[in-house]
Amino acid sequence: MDFTQLGRSGLSVGRIVLGTMNFGTHTEVGDAHRIMDVAHGVGINFFDTANGYGRAVYPGRTEEIIGEWFAKGAGNREKTVLATKVYGGMGVDWPNTSRLSALNIRRALDASLRRLRTDYVDLYQFHHVDRNTPWDEIWQAMEIAVQQGKVLYAGSSNFAGWHIAQAQEAAARRNFNGLVSEQSLYNLIQRDVERELIPAAQAYGPGVIPWSPLHGGLLGGVIRKENEGVRRLEGRAKETLDRLRPRIEQYEAYADELGHEPGELALAWLLHQPAVTGPIVGPRTLEQLESAVRAVDIKLDDAALARLDEIFPGYKTAPEDYAW
């Protein structure tokens, strides 16, 4: 596994991030524990979760599964850079049980620590921007959490470029480190963040952690699997495939030409993009995890990157993307 710094922090993390959203819903507890064991075995040290994951069972179930795994083995927690999130409600219909008020940050953090069976979180992430809470309140709550030793770093998720700027400027006024990471939807098909989010991250320092790097499986060899009868898409996924089928056919053919699996090529492409720390992969099986790790060793030259841009065109930085 290759390692890099998380944004401009001193934190060293692997270039593949283990996503845990499937734990407890699509992945049974025993399988989840084995996936985390194997992740450490191949050098993945960065695990991402959220307080609301596991909602199909009950919110917080995924954090519990990770906490159970921490308790199983000496060194499991110490070897893990642990990231969780706060924002969404936890099934309680009552004021101040969601979003980013100082009260909810305090309560949600303590609840996550109990479920995770740990006394600190390496990276505490705002799962969405809260337009109703001022940044001075948010940063004051985080400063207290850092002082208490419950949080080491702060991150964001699903922010726009101007939200990154707003957050970092507010943190700077308080002499606080601010955000070290931003999780965004980013893949070969969905490249909107290239207009403003990526430039903001480059200017203000957060490392970008792409989620849905295979765009719901559409970049994972979906047409080949469809032809083999392995997978059949329905609903919105099928509509997206029908709309993009010519491009995805070209993409899978090019992956074959390069000698790579389509999913591995999609992850490798992200690892070549500016400001990207590493994509989040959410394996349901050990085979999917092992496939993701192989992407780290794929090196793409300028010709390959240009060909992928032809198949899935990206965006220029704003305002040049739409103006002179």
Task: Give an overview in words.
It is a single chain. The protein is an alpha/beta fold. About 40% of the residues lie in helices and about 15% in strands. The chain contains eleven helices and ten strands. It has helices spanning about 30-40, 60-70, 100-115, 135-145, 160-175, 195-205, 220-225, 235-260, 260-270, 285-295, 300-310, and strands at about 5, 10-15, 15-20, 45-50, 80-85, 120-125, 150-155, 180-185, 205-210, 280. It has an eight-stranded parallel sheet with strand order 9-8-7-6-5-4-3-10, covered by helices on one side. A two-stranded antiparallel sheet has the order 1-2. Helix 6 links the parallel strand 8 and strand 9 (about 205-210). Helix 3 packs parallel to helix 4 (about 135-145). It is globular. The relative contact order is 0.13. The mean pLDDT is about 95.
Summary?
The chain is α/β, with parallel strands linked by helices and 324 residues long.
Topology (elements, then pairings):
Elements: E1 3-5, E2 12-14, E3 17-19, H1 29-41, E4 46-48, H2 61-72, E5 81-86, H3 102-116, E6 121-126, H4 135-147, E7 151-157, H5 161-173, E8 179-185, H6 197-204, E9 207-211, H7 222-227, H8 235-258, H9 262-271, E10 280-281, H10 286-294, H11 302-311
Parallel strand pairs: 3-4, 3-10, 4-5, 5-6, 6-7, 7-8, 8-9
Antiparallel strand pairs: 1-2
Structural class: alpha/beta
- Put simply, the count of helices is 11
Strand order of the largest sheet: 9-8-7-6-5-4-3-10
Number of DSSP-assigned strands:
10
For the terminal residues, how far apart are their CA atoms?
A: 42 Å
Shape designation: globular
Q: Biggest sheet: strands, sense, closure? A: 8 strands, parallel
